[in-house]
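Dear colleagues,

As part of the handover before I leave the project, I'm documenting each prediction I ran so the next person doesn't have to rerun anything. This entry is a single chain, and its sequence is reproduced below.
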Amino acid sequence: MAGVPFRWPRCLALAVTSALLCGPGGAAAQGTNNVAPLAVTQVKPGVFVHLGALEDWAAANGGDVANLGFVVGSRCVAVIDTGGTPAVGQALRAAVEVATPLPVCYVVNTHAHPDHMLGSVAFVATNQSAPRFVASAGFARTLAARAPYYLNALQRDFGITLPPAAIVYPTLGVEKSLDIDLGDRVLTLRAWPTAHTDNDLSVYDQRTRTLFASDLLFVRHVPVLDGNLRGWISAMAELKQLDVAMLVPGHGPVSSDWPAVGDAQADYLNALLRDTRAAIKDRLTIQQAVDRIGVPPGSQWLLTDRFHRRNVTAAFAELEWEDDVPPRPAAPSPAGSSAQPARTTGG
């Protein structure tokens, strides 16, 4: 466990949240009493889940595309991911307040993708003690590099203009694992080696054996590779060994059929690995590989047009450098020169 050196000044937190709730793109009213709460389902006692739309992150759905949740203990509440806009986060906060009068003591961000964490600012300013924001130790670094692009996308695609201070960084980073006690309820947070991203975090409720896998598992929505393909396959194998009664994926319906519900994603990732290695062995360029490698026949994945070709590109860039892959034939050297060109990713 390692703390990330970032804390919101209280006055700034209040000012930013107030601006979000009153300004363009924010909730229409100040305070959650006048905000319609997100629809949530209690999937296990004290475990609440909101299912996002199985669509791309876009203005048409208000950025509400990721699965979010919260777990209620006897002392306080842990929120798990906060949604793709501040307004989604505010509606989630309203849902928490409808479900329980207990304060939010932790806000857990499972990884630094915008559809899962841009709503965190809604939890910064409260009438109660401020929650701790928890994420993988690698989260802050990745978010810092991408935050300007997220803010630009919000302005361009959603018409929402936010100051950089609206991006919430963790106050607590998890190096490997961390148990957090909500009062008679312990959640185990685990930081994973690079898989879906380089900062994945899972949340396991010991009492109900509910696993918030977040984007380590996609159901129906095609998996999206933004980390390491081989690492993700390895993480899937470890996840399958866990004693899980209820599985909450990052996208798609919850399921009590674990580990079978993960088989479709495992098949997809393994096919991507096999087919990309075959393309590299056949000396294809990255563009030729993207054109050749399709979605496995009979699959029912949604959003393949949006993400599959990008997955092939990412897999190719990773696997081209495996030690057992022979280099491409070198281009002829200029006359009179014995130098050989460096190996590149092609395309």
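The longest strand covers residues 210-218. The radius of gyration is 22 Å.

All the best with the project,
I.
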